[in-house]
Amino acid sequence: MTNEEKFIIESLGKENPFRVPEGYFDHFAEQFMNELPEQQVTVPEKRSRLKLLRPVLMAAACLCVAIFSITLYLNRSQEVPEQTAATTTTNTVDETFMDEAADYAMLDNADIYACLSE
Fold first, then answer.
1. What is the DSSP letter of 118?
2. C-alpha angle with apex 37: 34 to 41, nearest 5 degrees?
3. How far apart (Å, rounded) are the C-alpha atoms in residues 81 and 89?
4. Residue 18 carries which DSSP code?
5. What are the structural domain ranges in the chain?
6. Whether 52 contacts 45, CB under 8 Å
7. pTM: predicted TM-score of the whole model, two decimal places
8. 3-class SS at 115?
C-alpha cells in the first residue's frame, strides 16, 4: 500500500459508506414487475403468397442459372477448334516478335544460350 492509501484508511476507516435501506430487496421483484408496461399479445398474420412461393422462386432461379451456364459451356466447347487456328498464328507472331527483339538486342544464338545458362 502507498502512503496515500494508508492515510485514507486511517482517516476514514474500512467501513463501507454505501448502505441499502432496510427491507429494500424484500419486495423488489413484485415492485419491479408492477412497474413494467403491459404488453399486448399479437396474433401472427397469415403469410402472403409471395412468402409461401419464395422457396419455389429461388429454386426456379437456380435452375435458370444452371441451364444458362451449361448452354454457354457447350457453345464455348464447340468454338475450341476455331481457336486452335488462331493460336497457331499467335505462335508465329510471338516467334516473329522474339526474332525482332533478338536482332534489336544484337544477340546471336550463342549469346542467348549464355544468358539462359546463367
1. -
2. 115
3. 14
4. -
5. 65-117
6. no
7. 0.30
8. helix
- Which three three-digit cell numbers place residue 66? 444452371
Q: Are 112 and 102 in contact (CB under 8 A)?
A: yes
Residue whose entry in the numeric block shows the C-alpha cell 448452354: 71
C-alpha cell at 91: 505462335
Please tell me whether residue 86 adopts helix, strand or coil conformation.
helix
- Per-residue pLDDT of 45-85, as tens digits, reads 777 887 888 999 999 999 999 999 999 988 886 655 555 55
**Separation CA 118–CA 114 (nearest Å):** 6
Cell of 36: 413494467
To the nearest 10°, report the CA torsion of 7, 10, 12, 17: 110
Write out the H or E segment, with its range, that includes residue 40.
none
